[in-house]
Specification:
single chain, mainly alpha
Length: about 160
């Protein structure tokens, strides 16, 4: 396996069937937990920001000369998007000294909302998905991750009554 394939398929996770994107999102969860445990939100954020250009590079290499600009085995985009969705629990856990496992409803919400937005592709997610090339492959998941993170924050606000409800 080449370095581009290692990154693009997240060490082969992208070859799992069915639903490789879901497997990629699931693989992102323990990776995010480990990053958060090692260095809190700052490490997860840095890893995410490094994952995006690495994913663009790997996607460019893996799709060179192919008509398929977004093959299903490329799941690094799901990892980046899922990590962004998890920022909504990593930051507050880190900032307030809360064990990230105590925010377990946020883990579930982040996973489900990210998968929903990644599959449904509403608004800006669909716009990015229609972009040809590696940038579009990564950006639809980045945007889905941002939307999921906002959703997680709103759900936490409703759940904890901090929105005045």
């Amino acid at each position: 396996m080449t370095p581009a394939q290692m990154i693009g398929t997240v060490c082969g996770v992208g070859y799992m069937r069915p639903a490789p994107g879901t497997w990629g999102s699931l693989a992102a969860l323990p990776l995010a937990y480990g990053l958060h445990q090692l260095g809190g939100f700052p490490l997860l954020a840095l890893a995410t920001l490094a994952c995006i250009p690495a994913g663009i590079w790997a996607t460019k290499i893996m799709t060179a000369g192919s008509d398929d600009h977004d093959p299903s085995e490329i799941v690094v985009d799901e990892v980046a998007g899922q990590w962004i969705a998890l920022w909504a629990i990593s930051y507050p856990a880190w900032a307030h000294g809360i064990p990230i496992t105590a925010l377990w409803p946020g883990w579930i919400s982040a996973f489900l909302l990210f998968r929903l937005f990644d599959i449904w592709k509403p608004g800006p997610v669909g716009w990015a998905d229609r972009k040809e090339g590696p940038f579009g492959v990564m950006m639809d998941d980045v945007i889905a991750g941002i939307m999921a993170a906002i959703g997680v924050a709103l759900l936490a606000g409703f759940s904890h009554g901090v929105l005045g409800l």
